[in-house]
Specification:
This protein folds into two domains: 93 residues, Sandwich (Jelly Rolls), CATH 2.60.120.10; 29 residues. The chain has one helix and nine strands; from the N terminus they run βββββββββα. Helices cover 22% and strands 38% of the residues. The relative contact order is 0.25.
């Protein structure tokens, strides 16, 4: 049985997420999100999005995290998280740092502003 979680982060996300034995959690995560194994060992499964054009032929990458270890997701995508042993586990999702989001916002600002000016120019002409 799986549980699908949203990708949005809120202040409550700092609390460990419990993963009962035999359950699978699927999260749609942004690039550079960190997954920290707080209790028990975890198994992560993800696919390389750059190979999405291959469909189901894309191999699944499997990563094991021992308690206390951390893995940073290199690219956005869906990650399935399960306990390695038939025991409950807990993990924490840490969103990318704020300066990365601020940098992306500043990088896209000129393009957004240009689009706004073009729209305004068309409406006034």
């Amino acid at each position: 049985m799986s549980v699908r979680q949203p990708s949005a982060f809120s202040p409550r996300d700092a609390a460990p997420l419990q993963l009962p034995a035999g359950r699978l959690a699927m999260h749609d995560l942004r690039a550079h999100t960190a997954i920290v194994a707080v209790k028990g060992a975890l198994q992560l499964q993800l696919r390389d999005r750059s190979l999405a054009w291959l469909g189901d032929a894309v191999p699944v990458t499997t990563i094991r995290l021992q308690e206390g270890e951390c893995f940073v997701i290199p690219q956005s995508g869906v990650v399935s998280i399960s306990a390695v042993h038939a025991q409950a586990a807990a993990f924490v999702l840490q969103p990318p740092r704020l300066h990365n989001n601020l940098y992306d916002l500043l990088r896209r600002a000129p393009q957004s502003l240009a689009g706004l000016v073009k729209t305004w120019w068309r409406r006034t002409a």
